[in-house]
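Reviewers asked in the last cycle whether our approach scales beyond single polypeptides. To address this, we selected a multi-component target totalling 595 residues and predicted its structure end to end. The input consisted of the following lines:
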Amino acid sequence: MRKNILINIINSTYTFYRDGFRGMVLGKKLWTIILIKLFVMFVVLKLFFFPNYLNTRFATDEEKTNYVLEQITRTASKSQLK
Amino acid sequence: MIDIDLSMVNWARAQFALTAMYHWIFVPLTLGLSFLCAFFESIYVRTGDKQWQSITKFWMTLFGINFAIGVATGIILEFEFGTNWSNYSWIVGDIFGAPLAIEGIFAFFLEATFFAVMFFGWNRVSKRFHLFSTWMVAIGSNLSAVWILVANGWMQNPVGMLFNPETARFEMNNFAEVVFNPVAVSKFVHTSSSGFLFASLFVLSISCWYLIKGRHLQMAKKSIIVASVFGLLSSSFVAFTGDESAYVVAQKQPMKLAAIEGLYKGQIKAPIVAAGILNPDKKPGDHQDPFLIKVEIPYLLSLLANRSLNSFVPGIDDLVYGNEEQKIESIASKIDKGKAAINDLTQFKQAKKENNSQKAEISLANFRKNQEYMGYGYLNKPEEAIPSVAIPYYAFHIMVALGTLFPVIFAAFLFYALKDSLTQKRWLLPVGLISGLLGLIAQQSGWVVAEVGRQPWAIYGLLPVKMATTNLTAANVQITFFMFLGLFTILLAAEITILLKQIAIGPDGGPLK
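The resulting structure, written as structure tokens, was:
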């Protein structure tokens, strides 16, 4: 009995989303824009232009800590930067 | 002559500002339009009038377009943290992790469920459940904004944490203090209510366009009534929360308040500058008048800053060079303490390397004495602690002037809409038409005040922006700056094109499909 109720809920949720997506008109255009945007952001920008600086250079948290500590204690040289 | 600094730091700042400003076109509309849709639908469910259903579906479609184009534009800010601001990103990781994770999870579940019901659920679920979903989207969207503003509030007023020299991180030791940080609270209520105001102006703008064109008159008038009521209520709330925000700024970031008021010499019974033109030659510490021309309202700045007409409000000179009488410490003294803190941190690091636990313990104890001044140790001279005065000053006054104008606009539209004589007031309609743009200018000005006014700090008093960046060349950031400029301009053009097309179709186009 409980299993049937669960199956019904899953089934009706699935058809709800399926029919919703199938019936889209302007929504299709918007989804296309969203997908292109996400592709540009995560595949092009993130991969080629926005690597995580610390993650790509250091393997462990200890190395990252040491690097950042080194950076923020090298005041004389860095604080000349403006 | 404007001296433009083209260093990496400034390119990284410009890129962050560009991303945030584009992002902030979409967000306030989402925050406010979601509630307006909920109001329209509530009236429909209560009255059963099909015209209200049609109105709801129309504004819901515009809400959907704005949401779709704007979604994930904020993620780019996180990319920038990792690439351009790696020191900062590491140092605050422990503080920002929790709020941003909560926001991500919350937004995902909210959007995957209630958002789908809102758009796919017409005629599929009961009227009341559909209305419930619309309200949930409105409440949820606004609540998810809490967390990012908590993070921003912490940068403006770092509380509930301790710097751990072993990990080089600020570590949260009091979650409640971070969440209920007075800067975060005032920022959230002021920001979200200004989003309601902007969305009301957006609805007013488009409705006026229909009235000018003589199309969908009933829908436009009804939309104007709801938007004007919501806009008037939001305006009052924005004024109230703005006053609270200014009070918090005066208490926690007095330099920012001095900059946005162009106040160099502190005063008892300080007047507020209602309008004025700054003297471009004015320098801190000199005897020139900061203004070429100004109109003041007596006592008001003292009242705003300290809730007392006779209180002292410090100016830039007091904050930079100190004021013994008012017990204000000079920046030079703070720089000395900051340098001592950094020196102790260096000693601690060295002692750890040498496995000298006694020396490490002493260095750490010394560091703790001056840790709250750490950021000042990175400044080369006291004047570096002053933000640009002109930018936040003019942005603040533009924001306040527009914020004063908006309730007048809403009141006029509500009055004539209730008298059913809006179409005869041809002079008023163009004002309503451009009001959406004015709302956007006020929104952006508010963030300029908040972010430019807190310079030079990434974390107020603890980490200046120049120490928060990654060791990259300016060229690295320039390339991505222009890429973003292109990407966001395309997105904005797409938003405007699709919105205009949908507005031209009007409410007859039915719900978003």
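Residues 26-49 of chain A form the longest helix (24 residues). We regard this as preliminary and will revisit it once experimental data from Aim 1 are available.
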